[in-house]
Amino acid sequence: MNHSRVTLQPAYVLHQRPYRDTSSLIEVFTPSFGRVGIVAKGSRSAKSRMQGLLQPFQALLVSWSGRGELVTLTGCESGGPPRQLAGQVLVSGFYMSELLLRLLHRHDPHPVLFQAYSEALAALDQTNQQQRALRIFEKRLLQELGYALILDHQADTGEPLVADSVYNYELEKGPLPHDTLNEHELTLHGRSLMSLANEELNDTLSLRESKRLTRAALALYLGGKPLHSRKLLADLHKATHYKDPATDPARV
Question: Is the pLDDT of residue 1 over 60?
Fold first, then answer.
């Protein structure tokens, strides 16, 4: 989907960098056009009202013209109240945006994923909801990309998972009965898998094990290049000596 003129499309800025003297190159995420590369001419000039609008995590309505990999911004309006993220929550927002930049192709629409991103940003503002919001977003992202996790039945027999049972999770296959004779990278409880499936994640074990699973699954598709946002969070933890035994947040 690549039209010559688009008007007032809902969007979030995923990334922005300077371009020439006063312009910017921005990557936005939209429901109907997916990830779009836009040239925002004059956006960094002192008189430009867009300078304060084109911010990460701010709901926007953007208009553009042109075809191809880069289009030209023709208008930008606020699509909602300002959202101010800080500290670890800010880095978590950057993490979600970086996943979209790395895993989505340009001009590939994902309206369901756009809604998931918007909901996750809202949840990051809620006390003690950050880790839950990230795991749900990761699960929905994998599903939208066609890599949905099997979370409700055994991969070999199709039998429903048992909450108190332990399973070995084979990536790109699913949960299998735990083999006590062999160590396995991903050993998870049935209750954690079921909690992620139902998007509950209201206990420490489910949060910790779901994090191991989604991070391992995403690593398959991210390749060997590390995420910048994970380094940012690691640096933040070193600076603040932050500890959260409930969620093991060495990284997002």
Answer: no
